[in-house]
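step: validate -> pass
step: tokenize input -> pass
step: predict -> running
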Amino acid sequence: MFDRGSAEYSKLIPELSAWNNGAGIDVDGWLSCKGDFELAIAFSRMFWPEFTEHDGCVLFAGFGPTVYQEWLESCEGDRAAVEAVMNHRHLLDLFYHAADSATPAQLTYLGRVLKDIFTAKLQYLFPSRVFTVEFDEGPFANPLDYQLTFWQPAS
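step: predict -> pass
step: emit ->
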């Protein structure tokens, strides 16, 4: 599990140091000033995603059965490969409007947290199954390469 206690939030959220006439603010105080319930509700979908079972695979809810079938054929029936591709998420796609401002440190932090969340939720929902949850940490020249995915390894 990723230890968030060692995170340097002032580097991840540069705005923290500007608050209180330059005296700064901690991340929890900043969140209580900047956040709102609508945003928290929206973030709940990212931080506790919905999964569903289909044809022995576990996929993000809302997947397209036609797309699944196309990937199954393309991957020659390898369901683990289908899960890996259909469940992958590029971190930049989460906030495409802010992609130009994302730093490698921010992408790494968020990817590590999401990896832990996906691992915990998959284990909670499917305790008898084994999953590989993978986050590519980089460093990458192209920030689009920071991505996260999960699959069930072939037994």
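step: describe -> Residues 9-47 form one domain.
step: cleanup -> pass
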